[in-house]
Specification:
Number of strands: 7
Largest sheet: 5 strands, antiparallel
CATH topology of one domain: Aspartate Aminotransferase, domain 1
Order of helices and strands: HEHEHHHEEEEHEHHH
Low-confidence stretches: 38-67
Number of helices: 9
Helix content: 40-55%
Structural class: alpha+beta
Shape: flat
Amino acid sequence: MSVCCRERLQRLSLAVARFLLRCTTVASSQKADYRARSTVPTHAFAASVPGETKPVKKRTSAAVHDLTVIDSYISDFPQSTQKVLLQLRQVIREAAPDALEAIKYRIPTFVLNGNLVHFAAFNRHIGFYPTPSAMLHFQKELAPYPSAKGSVQFLLNQPMPWDLIREMVLFRVAEVQGAKTATVAKTSARTKTANPPKKTRTAPTDAGNASKHTAEASTAKTRKVPKPDANSAKNGRSVPGKKTK
């Protein structure tokens, strides 16, 4: 191979190496920009409720994926707010011991045959979300507090109504369990209607067979044999039970 060809191959290889290096650099920079632009507020769901204020902190996308337990959520707030959140969590646990803890809509959630209640912390208040049915049932007791269709705000500079919160959670537990019982009853009724029970034939017993044979034998004995008629015998007609000559 001539010197000229070798130089051309070297230049070509260097150009390819530079191109690949540029591609990797551009891809890494694009990933970094995407991560920087994908910052999401922690309480996106809670902030969308009418009357809610902006949350205390924001989380990057990497921190959001680590938000899997309520403990990590509570630890991000000041000590005074943490005490209220921990007590609220304990009240819900006592009222709904079978409920499971989870993070849904980026806020703490208790789950019992579906979402039971939610709560979230903000700058000046605690947001509690017991669903619209509980809000309608306790509308008189909740009249002093700012509320929306499915949420209520408890200000941090005022005493928390722990008894009222406990009653709302108990109401939700009864509501969820009642709905589950009704669903099971409807499902069983539909199953019975769709698949009616089949009629089973009882096999005849030995005693029944014996009685049947006895009745047939008695019937055969009592059956009368017709008497031969004199006229029919003279005319050469066949008589039942006798042979004709």
